[in-house]
Design goal:
single chain; alpha/beta; Rossmann fold; six-stranded mixed β-sheet; four-stranded antiparallel β-sheet; 9 helices; about 25% strand
């Protein structure tokens, strides 16, 4: 579903990504791992059009995409849930969800029932302002807003950061449910090692803006991956 080839990215004169390549298959979680500052978030921003990349190719569902803007990426089927959630605090839950309509045809401007099936708390709090929700509820809202856009690829940046355990379990359930549907590829950036290890179908470890290790989950020892991340 997603094929990234030799992606490079710069911030000013500093090169952040150095020829990163990866693939993400529908119905699977590709866990992107590594210590802080290795370029994981920058890679998601490049894929989602939030930051222009210098060179390389982004191929979505077999179709090359040329230096996407954020709107282009969303319309093409790439949804990004950023670290920190970035919900609109003064808007209601429903209004936050409706911002996802921007890249859809007018006929699709409806919040599907399955969104509330995945996140029942959002239906209960539909008229509450986003800023009045807890951190875990805001994270659920951010993921739901991304799903409104009907993505082919879902990019999740640190979805468990600062979240209470029961909400982490809910997010785990949502990710597994989306994978079971089989039509969406999920790229997960996550520092919570056990969460990523339990969910991942393949693992990409980055160091200094490059891929340093990659493996399918089948037969991969936990310690092997841990060492690859920490060394």
């Amino acid at each position: 579903m997603l094929d990234i080839q030799n992606l490079t990215l710069k911030y000013g004169q500093s090169q952040i990504l150095n020829g990163v390549s990866l693939t993400a298959q529908p119905g699977e979680v590709t866990a992107l791992m590594g210590t802080n500052g290795v370029g994981k978030t920058s890679l998601l921003k490049a894929i989602s059009g939030r930051h222009p990349y210098a060179d390389g190719t982004v191929i979505l569902d077999g179709k090359p995409q040329s230096h996407l803007t954020a709107f282009d990426a969303a319309k093409a089927g790439i949804a990004y849930v950023p670290q920190g959630r970035e919900i609109f605090p003064m808007m209601t839950v429903v209004e936050n969800l409706e911002t996802g309509f921007a890249c859809l045809n007018k006929a699709d401007h409806v919040v599907p029932d399955h969104i509330y099936d995945l996140f029942p708390v959002l239906k209960e709090m539909s008229e509450r302002r986003g800023g009045d929700l807890s951190g875990g509820q805001q994270q659920q809202l951010a993921i739901a807003r991304a799903l409104i856009t009907r993505p082919k690829v879902l990019l999740l940046d640190e979805p468990t950061e600062g979240i209470q355990p029961n909400i982490i379990q809910q997010i785990d359930h949502v990710i597994r449910t989306l994978c079971d549907q089989g039509d969406m590829a999920i790229v997960l950036v996550e520092q919570f090692f056990d969460f990523a290890f339990d969910l991942g179908d393949q693992f990409i470890v980055m160091k200094r803006g490059e891929v340093s290790f990659e493996s399918r989950a089948d037969g991969l020892e936990r310690q092997t991956l841990f060492d690859a991340v920490m060394v």
